[in-house]
């Protein structure tokens, strides 16, 4: 049984940092894990994705250079380090799994977590 659980969200001031965690248990090795976010009234957008099986990482332009995706396979964890946070980064953040290669198409993802709220405000 596959389970995704996000954690690490919260309230942070502009310019601050947060690290989100995604506990991904029961996932086959060939799945790529992506981080998405959804702001109120907006569509869910992909921001970072990692495919260990083919050694690829992708970032959205809006977060490149500020966010870093990483993994700890021994702990079945995927992380999203977020630095230099801006108010426009405020959203619910989700992790999800897609087979083989990273994708920004929501319907290609087989598994999702419940989300964690990130609020960037002074």
Structure, described:
With 122 residues, the chain is mostly beta strands. It has no helices and eleven strands. Strands 2, 4, 5, 6, 9, 10 and 11 form a seven-stranded mixed beta sheet that branches. The radius of gyration is 13 Å and the shape is globular. The termini are far apart.
Strand content: over 45%
Please tally the helical runs, counting DSSP H or I stretches of 4 or more residues: 0
- Taken from the alpha-carbon principal axes, the silhouette is globular
User: In terms of structural class, how would the helical and strand content be classed?
Assistant: mainly beta
What characterizes the major β-sheet? Answer: 7 strands, mixed
Q: Report the count of strand segments.
A: 11
Residue stretches low in confidence (pLDDT < 50, at least 5 long) are none
Order of helices and strands: EEEEEEEEEEE
Chart the SSEs and their pairings:
Elements: E1 3-7, E2 10-12, E3 18-25, E4 31-38, E5 45-51, E6 56-59, E7 67-72, E8 77-82, E9 91-99, E10 109-112, E11 116-120
Parallel strand pairs: 2-11
Antiparallel strand pairs: 1-3, 3-8, 4-5, 4-9, 5-6, 7-8, 9-10, 9-11
Outline:
By secondary structure, the protein is mostly beta strands. It has no helices and eleven strands.
Q: What keywords describe this structure?
A:
122 residues, mainly beta, four-stranded antiparallel β-sheet, globular
């Amino acid at each position: 049984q596959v389970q995704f659980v996000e954690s690490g969200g919260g309230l942070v001031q502009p310019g601050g940092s947060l690290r989100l965690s995604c506990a991904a248990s029961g996932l086959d090795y060939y799945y790529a894990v992506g981080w998405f976010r959804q702001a109120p009234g907006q569509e869910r957008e992909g921001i970072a994705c990692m495919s260990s099986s083919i050694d690829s990482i992708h970032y959205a332009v809006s977060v490149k250079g500020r966010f870093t995706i990483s993994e700890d396979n021994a702990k079945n964890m995927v992380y999203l380090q977020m630095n230099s946070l801006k108010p426009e980064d405020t959203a619910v953040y989700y992790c999800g799994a897609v087979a083989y290669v990273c994708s920004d198409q929501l319907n290609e993802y087989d598994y999702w977590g419940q989300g964690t709220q990130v609020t960037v405000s002074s």
